[in-house]
Write a structure and sequence with these properties.
Blueprint (H helix, E strand, L loop, with lengths): L4 E4 L6 E4 L3 E2 L8 E3 L4 E4 L4 E4 L10 E3 L2 E3 L22 E9 L2 E8 L7
Amino acid sequence: MDATRRLMLAHSTLALVMTSASTCTGVSPLARRFDLVNVGLDVIKKALTLTVPGGQSSGPISVAQVATSYSDILYGSVRTVAKISDVPGTTHSFIFYANDTQEVNFAFLTSDVSKA
């Protein structure tokens, strides 16, 4: 994998890969660029941080993603504790993706303006 770094979390055996790639390049509203600088580790809080720069108005939008490097996971139980941003219009998601027909998404949109 080009432009990826492996990150080992303290007290964890789960190998994570920080993704650096682009999808739907250009000015498409779906265009996004996975930037390594948006992924960090807060050693004081023992937390993985994914940051998205604010004020972006045209694509590709700078985003953050972390994936596991394991390819032999057949089943599992997942538990997470997440601090969701209070910045309006930010999407937080957890995606379990095997292929285009085997995918589960959990998405949280802050301040959904369509409900206003």
